[in-house]
Every structure is written in C-alpha cells, then in structure tokens.
Amino acid sequence: MAAETAFLDALATHLAARPALAGARIGAAEPAVAGELPAVVLSLAEVHRLGAGLGERASLITGALPVTSTVDLANPVLPEEPTFRLLSTDRRTLVMPHGGWVKLDGSDLPLEAADLQVSVAGAARTVVKAAPGANEVRPDAPIGTLLFGAALPPAGHVVATYRIGQWERRLTPIAGMLHVDIRAAAAADVQAFAGAVIDALDKELGTLPAGLRKIALNRVSSIAVPDAAFANARGRGLDFAFEYEHPIDRPDSSGGVILRIPVAMQTDATTETFEVVP
C-alpha cells in the first residue's frame, strides 16, 4: 500500500475510535446522499515524499513476522531465481523463499502446528518433528525447508505460513497538508465534529496514529451556508501540516534461498572441490 493511502487509512481508523465522532462516516469518500451525513472526509491537499529517491530507509527488525509463501509445483522456482529449482529430484524436499523460522513468540524452539501451517493442493499437512508419514511434513526451521513424507504431485501449489525472526523494515516518509472536510445537517453538529477532529489530532490530549511524527492545525474555515444542492448540508474545512512515516515489513534479510556453488581450489598439483551450502 502506498504511504499516502496508508496515512489516510490510519487517520480514518484513529478518528473512528473517538466516541465524539460516533455516527459519522469517516474516510476518503464524499457523501453522495443526505443519508450519508454526518461525514468526515479526508484528503491530501498537498503531499511529497522526503529524502532521496522515494525516501525509503531500512532497518533490521527481530521478532516474529508472519509470512505466507506459495510454490507452484508445476514450476517450482522463484521469479527472481528462475534457474534454481526449489524442489528436490525425489519431490520430497522443498526449499521455501525464507529461512530463520521462529515460533509465534519469536523463540527458536522446535516448531509446533500453531507455528507453521502447510497445505498441498489445498490439503493440510500435519507438522511433525520426526520422520514424516504420507500426509506429514517436517520443517528445518533455520534453513527454511520442508521434508514431506511422500513425493509431491506434479501440479498444484504448496502454501506455507510461518514466522521469520529477522526482516527489513522500510520507512517511507511523507509530508504535506491534510484537508478534513466536515459535513452535517446542522451548524451545531458541524462545529462539534470539527472540534472532535481537532482534539483527536492533538498529541497533548492523547496518542496519535503510529508513524505520525508531526501534525499541526493550520486553518479552520468558517461554517458554510446551507448547500441547497445537497439537502442544505453545512460544512467546515480543517487543514493540518503533517509528517508521516509509513512502515513496510519485508523479509529481505531472513535468509532466503542460497544456491549450492561448487568451488574449485588448486594448489600446485592438487585440486580440491568444495560446496557452499546454506
């Protein structure tokens, strides 16, 4: 999701939780009929991304990030590594895109059914710690592989949901002007809802949405005269200057697929061959 859209969604969720705004439609859509009043409409009058390029910064995060990966058994490769097959020749061992799996709480103890879910062509497989049976699978959590008790079919998909213990969190900072348009049937309601929005975005009066670094009220318009074209609704506009950081969790540093690379070393008359493995 784009940082700009994520910012508006986070604000809508934050405002919807305020008791003083109960009953109002809050979001990016303008009210179309009188039945959609009162309404609090959010838009970005001005926005730009901060920093070089797209403004993204990354930091290493540890914990337990849920990831769902899908492998096509008819073509078991990754789009970015089309020459490396994820499935062994006996079709029992499958390499998933990420390694370093952990339990729900982030610990690295042996995985249980709650920590890993695997299905083959829509049929669930039971996670075990010993040699797997026909409908079972044994994970190798540090490397990120699955050993199945029977050969996988030539078609269908393997879907695995696991948690990784380390990943990249990228931050996209944006700044600009937030416009809030309040619409209601009566001027008193418009004034009350406008005050509730201002209070909800005042950090001195409570917490702000995660990632909202700065926000300041810049403008409060007058309450407009009744709009004859829209059921005589009244309106007021609010403008806020803001800075927001949108986080995106990506499992870029969780291990991933590592190719087996043959390495030949020659010393005088002797040649030795080694393998680099995950």
Automatic annotation (TrEMBL):
It comes from the Bacteria. This is Baseplate protein J-like domain-containing protein. It comes from Variovorax rhizosphaerae.
